[in-house]
Amino acid sequence: MKIAIYPGTFDPITNGHIDVLNKASIVFDKIYLAVADHTGKQSMFSLNERVNLCKLSLKDHEKIIVTKFKGLSVDFAMKVGATVMIRGLRAVSDFEYELSLALMNKNLCDELETMFFVPNSKYLYLSSTMIRQVVSLGGKVLDYIPKCVETAIKKKLKGVENE
User: Fold this and answer.
1) If DSSP states are collapsed to H, E and C, what string results for 69-134?
2) Helix 128-136, helix 147-157: angle, nearest 10
3) Cα(83)–Cα(43) distance, rounded to whole angstroms?
4) Could you say which of 11, 69, 81, 114 has the lowest number of CB atoms within 10 Å?
């Protein structure tokens, strides 16, 4: 069985993330969408909220298991038997960071490879940060995120908890 992980903060999950997962689902038998406990930045959503939004957004994807993790993604990958880490590449600006991350992960765990997927062109400029900003300013984003995510962002901006 070919197992991969797709780690990230997913704050929130976007259609770009889902597009990468759809492409990876063709290659892998099982994919762990691994929602990171530590984001390294100010998150809009708590860990449990991010996990729940990912589960709602991916409920029809049989090969994808949404879970949370703490610590290094390479340690989590070894724990679940993954041999590949999935990463999305949107633009040239992503490449340098993603390459350095892949090389560090390879140094930490020689058995783990990184595979890059390029999302559909309509998602190339998309980021979770951009989505949060557009929604907060009243813009339309349904072409870029699942409906449940849009609803959760709007509730969060109004001060309503999503858990």
Assistant:
1) ECCCHHHHHHHHCCCEEEEECCCHHHHHHHHHHHHHHHHHCCCCEEEEECCCHHHCCCCHHHHHHH
2) 60
3) 29
4) 81
Tell me the HSE value of 154 on the side-chain side, using a 13 A CA sphere: 12
Catalytic residues: 17, 41, 90, 128
Dist. CA 154–CA 126, nearest whole Å? 18
**Are 145 and 13 a contacting pair, CB within 8 Å?**
yes
What is the domain partition of the chain in residue ranges?
3-157
Q: What confidence tens digit (pLDDT) does each residue in 73-120 have? A: 999 999 999 999 999 998 777 888 899 999 999 999 999 999 999 999
Rounded distance between C-alpha atoms, residue 25 and residue 19, angstroms: 10
Q: Which residues partner with 87 through β-bridges? A: 116
CA dist 95 and 110 (Å) reads 21
Identify the architecture of domain 3-157 in CATH.
Answer: 3-Layer(aba) Sandwich (3.40)
Q: Taking the model in full, what pTM does it have?
A: 0.92
pLDDT of residue 161: 56
